[in-house]
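Name: Insulin-induced gene protein
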Amino acid sequence: MSLTLTAMSDSAAGEQWAGPGQGPRQPRGPYISCITNRSTNLLIRGFMLFSVGVFLALVLNLLQVQRNVTLFPPDVLSSIFSSAWWVPPCCGTASALIGLLYPCIDSRLGEPHKFKREWSSVMRCVAVFVGINHASAKVDFANNVQLSLTLAALSIGLWWTFDRSRSGFGLGVTIALLATLATQLLVYNGLFQYTSPDFLYIRSWLPCIFFAGVITMGNIGRQLALYEYKFIQEKMHQD
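Structure predicted for Insulin-induced gene protein:
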């Protein structure tokens, strides 16, 4: 009799009951535990954002170099991508940090971003960003002031169309200013240069490009975080 009671208690202890009228719920398996681990998810999202940043850096920097907007010393150029080796990793790292920071700030402020939260909107945002960068290299304007004002309007229009959050605008402006300062230091130290600098060693429209890039990577980071949340909720519900 005691053996029977012991076996019954062990069986009950190994099962988790969902509630009255429902069957026993088995403990979550290692797969569910893995995909719900916060550190693992951050690493996955960070790697994806890093990869996107590297790809965009290679494509957009190639355009700038081919149009002679930026000049690198001949000994540091790659024969394949016409770019210094350190440019893609730096852009990838910055993209990962920005993409992880945006949803984190939204969570801290208690203001989840809900405007146009779908992948089609994110892809359009990337396309507009590439178009803005393309315009800075290929479209001829009467003077640099006209070009800078046009790119500023396009960048703000990108934020209004795909973001519209105060936190997104504030982070975009802050990071764009810091990135511009870092670029000035790089140019000052001779790592590369602009063909027609008109504002402290750089082009005056550069902050607009950085702002548009920050908004774009922020949208990608937010969408990845939303997709991750929905995926985890679905898997936990199925379990």
